[in-house]
Every structure is written in C-alpha cells, then in structure tokens.
Amino acid sequence: MNNWGRIITAMVTPMDSSGNINYDKAVELAKHLVEQGTTALVINGTTGESPTVTSDEKIKLLTIIKSAVNVPVIAGVGTNSTAATIENAVAAESVGVDGLLAVVPYYNKPNQKSLYAHFAETAKATKLPIMLYNVPGRTGVNMTAETTAALSKISNIAALKEASGDLNQLAKVVRDAEEGFLVYTGEDAQILPTLAVGGYGVVSVTAHVVCKDIKNMVELYLNGNINEAAKIHRMLIKITEVMFMTANPIPVKAALNISGMDVGITRLPLAAPSEDVIKALKDSMSELGLLLGGNNEQNS
Questions:
Q1: pLDDT band at 1, cuts 50/70/90?
Q2: What's 42-58 look like in SS3?
Q3: Are the C-beta atoms of residues 7 and 215 closer than 8 Å to each other?
Q4: Residue 227's pLDDT is what?
Q5: Which of 75, 132, 144, 266 can pair with 270 through a Cys bridge, CB separation 3.0 to 4.6 Å?
Q6: What residues contact 87, with CB distance under 8 A and at least 6 apart?
Q7: Sign of CA dihedral 277, 58, 15, 255
C-alpha cells in the first residue's frame, strides 16, 4: 500500500535565531537527507517539534517539502483529540502528502478499546495510508501488540512506528499483524534487532547525521552479511546514545548545527543544549569522522 522504503527520517524543523521557521533551510535539509539515502520523510513529527508548530506552519512545511523532494512525505497529524487528528489528516491529505503518522493520544490516557476507536475513526476520514506511532515514554500509554494487530486489519492502516523499546512487543506485531503491514522501529538503537525479528525498517533521528551508515547496515543485513552489519551497529552505539541524552530534538539539532547545517534553535519549552551535550556530540561525531572540513569548532 505504500512505498516508504526502509529508512524514514523524522525531520527536524529548521528555525532561525528567533525561533521563526526557516523554510528555505527546511528544503535544503530535506534534499540533503534524500541525497544521503533517506527513503521517506516524516514532517511535523516529534522531532519536528510538532507541539509548538502552528497548523498554518505545518501546512506550509508540507507543501514546500512535498514539491521539493522525490521521496514520499509523511505528515505527522496525531493529537490527543480524535476530532483534531482527523482535521489535521484531512488538511494534510489536501496538500498531496503520501501518508500520515498518527501518534497514540497523549495525556488523557485512553484504554485499548479507546485507542482502537480513535485510530479506526481517523482511518475512516482519509484515503491515505496511516502509520500508527506507539511511544509510551511520551504519551503515557502503551498500545499493545493485540490492539495494533487488530488495527492492521483496517485497509489503510498500513504500518507501525514502534518506539516502546520492547522488542518482544514489536515481534508480536510482526507475527500477528495482517500480511503487508509494515513494522518500523522508532528506536535507533534497535534497527538491526528489528530487522532480525522481521521488522521492516526505521523511522530515524540519527539518520540526520549517519544515514549512509544506517543504509549500509540495512543493506548488509538484507544481503546476508550479518557480521558486517553488526559491526556498523556497534559503531553507532555511542552516537545513538548521545542523540537521546536529553529530550529529542535538542541533541539532533545541535548535531546538525555542529556539522555546518544550521537548523537553529528549538522552541520553548525545549531549551538550548547544555555544554555537556555539545561536548558529547562533538566527541562522538569526531570518532565517526563527521567533523571534517573545518566544522570541528562550530557550536550550536
């Protein structure tokens, strides 16, 4: 039902020093990520600071990025209101995106029956393929494998971004979901284990800076070169840990700024990165050879 590929990057939203969205930089970054091997882009997801980006800003971002790249664009539309999620989905569909990412409703803590009803109603309102997004660390609720498998029977619910960190739960979805339903990990540390249990790919944050390595790792695994794939997995452990040492997207924006891709600040309530974060990023990026060409002294 979709052609999103295996390496989807959840793209940051570039901003200037005053916190205004830098749309030209957003296009530049989107094109850069595609050149690095990203097979699709999530716009207005968690990494894109969706809680603090306005509805008008979101539509403008979707419109300009969709026209600028030749890979699928997936719009983050989920909220803790079913009506608002549907409104966002309809608006995103109207600008021609290729799919929707809908997060488990946060804060109001719906039970499993309520989660099923929420996503089923959202699916009725759109013809686009939907990727469910389970991230209990942010939403306060875990959508079980049983609920996800039930939702996979709805024709346009096409995929899952599983960010619970529970590999057994992810594997259960792979086992029990409808044929053709794609399971992506939302945990950069679990890309290789996800492939090993039959998952399809990743919705990644670290792909902003190490997409080529992730692409190489995935291809090596799919071609049966498990040992070489595992070497890359181990090589990326440090950068993955550093990318999540404080709230996403604070570190990844800092990493892009350090590398010379100026994506600006995060909007409050996400504050500037600490010096510890900057130092850890520079150390890990230097070890991977990502600070060549005179960018070593850049700060965020």
A1: low
A2: EECCCCCCHHHCCHHHH
A3: yes
A4: 98
A5: 266
A6: none
A7: positive
Burial class of residue 113, CB neighbours in 10 A (0-12, 13-18, 19+): exposed
Dihedral of CA atoms 219, 224, 228, 230 in degrees, nearest 10, equals 90
In the chain, what is the greatest distance between 2 CA atoms, to the nearest angstrom?
54
| 166 contact partners, CB below 8 Å, separation of at least 6 | 142
Whether this prediction's pTM lies above 0.85 is answered by yes
Burial of 234 (0-12, 13-18, 19+ CB in 10 A): exposed
**pLDDT at residue 300 above 70?**
no
In which residue are the tokens 């079980």 written? 144
Cα separation values, 145 from 107, 124, 274, Å: 21, 21, 37
State how far the Cα of 140 lies from the Cα of 264, in Å rounded to an integer.
Answer: 29
Give the β-pairing of 99-103 and 201-204.
unpaired
Instruction: Let me know: does 278 contact 300? Beta carbons within 8 Å.
Output: yes
**Tokens 């996403």, located at residue:** 248
Q: Render pLDDT for 45-69 as a digit per residue (tens, 0 to 9).
A: 999 999 999 999 999 999 999 999 9
Query: How much is the pLDDT for 220?
Result: 98
Active centre residues (catalytic) = 133, 161
Residue 175, number of CB atoms within 10 A of its CB: 12
Residue 295 has pLDDT above 90, yes or no: no
8-state DSSP, 159: E
What is the b/e burial string over 145-159, where b = at least 16 CB atoms within 10 angstroms of the residue's CB?
Answer: bebbbbbbebebbbb
CA–CA distance, 220 with 191 (Å, rounded to integer):
13
pLDDT, residue 296, reads 39
The pLDDT tens digits of the residues spanning 86-133 come to 999 999 999 999 999 999 999 999 999 999 999 999 999 999 999 999
**Fold exhibited by the domain 7-222:** TIM Barrel (3.20.20)
